[in-house]
Amino acid sequence: MSNHGAIAEGYFPGLGWISSRGKAGVHKDGTLKSSACCSRESAERRAMRTLVNKYRYMLGGEKGMTSTEYPSLSNEQVSRFLGELMAVVSWKSIGGNLSKIHIEHKVFNAAMKRVVG
Questions:
Q1: Cβ-contact 100, 94 below 8 angstroms
Q2: What is the CA radius of gyration of the chain?
Q3: Tell me: the pLDDT tens digits for 53-77?
């Protein structure tokens, strides 16, 4: 079984740079953890979920998502949102078992509109 890691990151206006580093099989310095994800796909999905959660937290401030549509999303909608994001991004191998994506906030907004209308 090999280790895989992934990094999802991007710049979001009003929030700044958000990164999944430190999760999804990757240390905060961007190197692969010795105990990482089982597959590339699971690492990439976990990295995207981490990015989404950090975005949600930062958007809502210290109290979390108080003024956006995210709290009303069901687990199924969150899963669909992640699926929409994963379907439109192209991950790049950055060496070994590491992959990376730079995602723009416009992609987030478009995916959310497809999920909630």
A1: yes
A2: 14
A3: 888 777 765 554 443 445 567 788 8
Closest CA to 1 of 20, 25, 23, 27: 25
Going by C-beta distance under 8 Å and a sequence separation of 6 or more, which residues neighbour residue 88? 107, 110, 111
Look at the block and give the residue holding tokens 């990757």: 26
Give 1-60 as a DSSP string.
Answer: ---BEEEEEEEETTTEEEE-TTSTTB-TTSPBPSS-BSSHHHHHHHHHHHHHHHHHHHHH
How many CB atoms sit inside 10 A of residue 70's CB? Answer: 21
Q: How many domains does the chain have?
A: 1
The predicted model scores a pTM of 0.85
Domain that holds residue 38: 5-116
CA separation for the pair 15, 39 (Å, rounded): 31
List of residues 6+ apart from 47 with CB closer than 8 A: 5, 6, 7, 8, 20, 23, 24, 26, 101
Q: For residue 106, with 0-12 CB atoms within 10 Å meaning exposed, 13-18 middle and 19 or more buried, which class applies?
A: exposed
Ramachandran angles phi, psi of 99, nearest 5°: -130, 160
